[in-house]
Input
Amino acid sequence: MEPYATLGQLSYAPATHTTVVTTTTTTTTSFPPILLSAPRNLKERDPKVYPLASSPAPESIRRFCFDVAGTQACFSEADNVEQSLQEV
Output
């Protein structure tokens, strides 16, 4: 895996499914992980021009939630990309 690649996952909850009988199930739907590659090798970038290129992303943009038509959706970036890929 290339350096600075990251892995993110999108999920939304609650998703309610009601059947004709009397069962109501509420679940969280998670989509397959998204592998995000860096635009190019960040080690090649001039640290004077790109001082944040080799810094980790702040927590506030690694995990965030938002509303989609009344349904809460969340995005989370993996802390350990290699381990997360093995778990999938």
